[in-house]
Design brief:
It is built from 20 helices and 21 strands. By secondary structure, the protein is α/β, with parallel strands linked by helices. The strands form five sheets. It has a six-stranded mixed β-sheet, sandwiched between helices. A four-stranded parallel β-sheet has the order 8-7-6-9, with helices on both faces. It has a four-stranded antiparallel β-sheet with strand order 15-16-14-17. Strand 19 and strand 20 form a beta hairpin. The chain is globular. The N terminus is likely disordered.
Length: 535
C-alpha cells in the first residue's frame, strides 16, 4: 500500500492513509517539537541524501527484505556530519566569533571540523593521545586545530570542557544536544521518504544515543507503527542497561572493538527520548559484528567500521530470536572510518561470527597415525587452522579450526561425534582468550613452571605504552609469558604470564588495580591449561 501522511495545520495530529484504512494519532508535544527541528535542519549545506539500497543476498538468506541506509557515503563517511553542522549552522555571529571546540577520537571530530570550516569558524578538536595518526590527520586536513589530551575519550572530554570554559569557546557535544539530535533525525526523514511502503523495523547503532533519539523522534511522530530498535556491542551496552534499569548508569568499563560507540554513559536527552519511543535495544558480540562487516562487503564492496555494521548484526540477531519472515527491515550503515590494519582481526573473526567455523581443542594419542585418524573423524569438513607442538610422549593437544555448513547445530554435533569416538574435546569457539591469543601461541608450554598466573590486559596504543607496561609489571614479579599483537585499534591487547608466589598474591592484585589498565584473569581458562599451562 502507498502510505503518506498529511501534516494538519494545528500541528497536533497526523492523518495516516492507505488503500486499507484511515486513522489519526495524537503526536506527543516532545515529538512535535523534535519533528519541527528535524524538518527545519540545515544539514544539506554539507551532508548528502544517501541512498537506501536493498541487500539482496542478506534478504534471501534471512527470508526478509533488508535495506541499508548508506550513511557511510557521506563526505566524511559518517552520519555525524548531520548533527554537527545542524548545531553549528544555528550559532549566532557572536557565538561563531568565539570558535567551537569538541572532544572526539573520530567521526564527530571530522563532522565538527567540516561544519566549522564551511561556516568559516575556528575549531579546536581535543583527541585522546591514543588516536591513530590517520584520524588525527583527517581532522587536521578539514581545517581544525588538534590538541591531544588523555588516554581515553572521557579524559579528552574533560580536557575540552576545561578549555571551553577558559577560552569561552562553544562546546559541540557529540550526542547530548537537541540540535545535534535533530540533525541526526534527518536520516529517518530520508528513509521514510525513500521507502513509502510498510517497514517493520529500523535498526540503529547506539553509542551515546544521538542517532537513535533523532530517528525515534521522527519515526514515532510520522509512522509510529514502525519499530525502532537500537543495537549495541555487548561490551559497551550503556543504553541497553539504562533502559533495563530505568535510569542512566555509568559502565565500569567498555570494550573498544566498536570504538565509534564505546561510550560509558548514554546522553541525558537521548535517554529521555529512548525511554519513551525506542521499542528495544539488542546487544551483539564482536564475532557478530565482524560477520556483519563481511556481509556488507559481500553486498556492496564497502568496508564499514565495526560501529557502522552494528545495525546489520542486529537485524540478523532479531530475525533469529524473533523468527520474523517476510518483513521489511532497514539498517542504518552509520560509518566507514576504518583503519586498514584492523581488517586482519576482522577477517579472523567473521567466519566464527557467521557460525561457519568452530575452534576446538582435541587431545589425541602421541603416536604414529593419530593425526590421520583424527582427520578421518572430522570427515570431509575443511580445516581452517591446525596447531600442534610436541608436549610429552603420551598425548598431544591439537588446536583446530573447522569449517561449518550448518552453524551451531553442526558444531555441537561435531563435538558429540568426536567425543563418541573417544577424543577429549573442548569447544573454544566462544573463548576470547583462544581467539585473540592462544591460536597464535600453541606450543609454548614450560614443564615445571611454578606459581604462574595468566592475565589479559588492555592498554592505550601509543608510543611508549608497551614499554611502560612491561617496565611497570616487570619490576616486582617475573614475566613468564608474553603475547602482544597490534590489531590497528586505539588499545593494545596483551596476554601476560607472571610468576607470583601464593603469599604475595594479595599485594599483586592490589598492584594491578593501581596500575589503571583493564585486565581479566585467565589462569583457569581451559585453553591456557591445554596449550600454555605450566605448573
Amino acid at each position: 500500500a502507498t502510505a503518506y501522511c498529511l501534516y494538519l495545520s494545528a500541528g497536533i495530529e497526523y492523518l495516516f492513509r492507505s488503500n486499507l484504512y484511515i486513522r489519526t494519532v495524537t503526536v506527543p508535544r516532545m515529538l512535535k517539537r523534535y519533528l519541527n527541528l528535524i524538518q527545519n535542519s540545515r544539514v544539506y549545506d554539507v551532508a548528502e541524501e544517501t541512498p537506501l539500497v536493498i541487500a539482496r543476498r542478506l534478504s534471501s538468506r534471512l527470508e526478509n527484505t533488508v535495506w541499508m541506509k548508506r550513511e557511510d557515503l557521506q563526505p566524511i563517511h559518517s552520519f555525524k556530519v548531520r548533527g554537527a553542522y545542524n548545531k553549528i549552522s544555528g550559532l549566532s555571529d557572536a557565538d561563531c566569533s568565539r570558535g567551537v571546540i569538541a572532544a572526539s577520537a573520530g567521526n564527530h571530530a571530522q563532522g565538527v571540523a567540516l561544519a566549522a570550516s564551511t561556516r568559516g569558524i575556528k575549531s579546536l578538536i581535543v583527541m585522546p593521545v591514543t588516536t591513530p595518526s590517520i584520524k588525527v590527520e583527517s581532522v587536521r586536513e578539514l581545517g581544525a586545530r588538534i590538541k591531544l589530551a588523555g588516554d581515553t575519550y572521557d579524559e579528552a572530554y574533560a580536557a575540552a570542557a576545561v578549555i571551553a570554559e577558559e577560552k569561552g569557546m562553544m562546546f559541540i557535544h557529540p550526542y547530548d544536544d537537541p540540535d545535534v539530535i535533530a540533525g541526526q533525525g534527518t536520516v529517518a526523514l530520508e528513509i521514510l521518504r525513500q521507502h513509502a511502503g510498510d517497514i517493520h523495523a529500523i535498526f540503529v547503532p547506539v553509542g551515546g544515543g544521538g542517532l537513535i533519539a533523532g530517528v525515534a523522534a521522527c519515526v514515532k511522530a510520522l509512522r509510529p507503527a514502525i519499530r525502532v530498535i537500537g543495537v549495541e556491542p555487548d561490551e559497551a551496552p550503556c543504553m541497553y542497561e539504562a533502559l533495563q534499569r530505568g535510569r542512566r548508569i555509568t559502565l565500569k568499563q567498555v570494550g573498544i572493538f566498536a570504538d565509534g560507540v564505546a561510550v560509558r554513559q548514554a546522553g541525558k536527552e537521548p535517554f529521555r527520548i529512548a525511554r519513551e519511543h525506542v521499542d528495544e535495544v539488542l546487544t551483539v558480540d564482536t564475532d557478530a559484528i565482524c560477520a556483519a562487516m563481511k556481509d556488507i562487503f559481500d553486498e556492496c564492496r564497502a568496508v564499514l567500521e565495526p560501529a557502522g555494521a552494528l545495525a546489520i548484526a542486529g537485524i540478523k540477531r532479531y530475525v533469529e530470536t524473533a523468527g520474523v519472515r517476510g518483513e521489511t527491515l532497514v539498517a542504518i550503515n552509520s560509518g566507514a572510518n576504518m583503519n586498514f590494519d584492523r581488517l586482519r582481526h576482522v577477517s579472523e573473526r567473521a567466519e566464527i561470527g557467521e557460525q561457519r567455523e568452530a575452534l576446538l581443542a582435541v587431545t589425541i594419542p602421541e603416536q604414529p597415525g593419530s593425526f590421520r585418524k583424527f582427520c578421518q573423524a572430522l570427515g570431509k569438513r575443511g580445516i581452517t587452522e591446525f596447531n600442534y607442538r610436541y608436549a610429552d610422549s603420551r598425548q598431544a593437544h591439537v588446536f583446530a579450526g573447522v569449517k561449518l555448513e550448518d552453524g551451531d547445530r553442526e558444531r555441537l554435533a561435531l563435538v558429540d561425534t568426536l567425543r563418541g569416538k573417544g577424543y577429549p574435546v573442548e569447544d573454544l569457539t566462544d573463548s576470547e582468550l583462544a581467539k585473540v591469543h592462544i591460536r597464535h601461541m600453541v606450543g609454548g608450554r614450560v614443564p615445571g613452571l611454578e606459581n604462574e598466573l595468566l592475565y589479559r590486559f588492555q592498554f592505550p596504543e601509543r608510543p611508549g605504552a608497551l614499554l611502560r607496561f612491561l617496565t611497570s609489571i616487570g619490576k616486582r614479579w617475573n614475566i613468564s609469558l608474553f603475547h602482544y599483537r597490534n590489531h590497528g585499534a586505539d588499545y593494545g591487547r596483551v596476554l601476560v604470564g607472571i610468576q607470583v608466589p601464593r603469599a604475595g598474591r594479595k599485594e599483586f592484585h592490589g598492584y594491578l588495580d593501581k596500575l589503571g589498565y583493564l585486565y581479566w584473569a585467565e589462569t583457569d581458562c581451559v585453553a591456557y591449561r591445554l596449550f600454555l599451562g605450566g605448573g
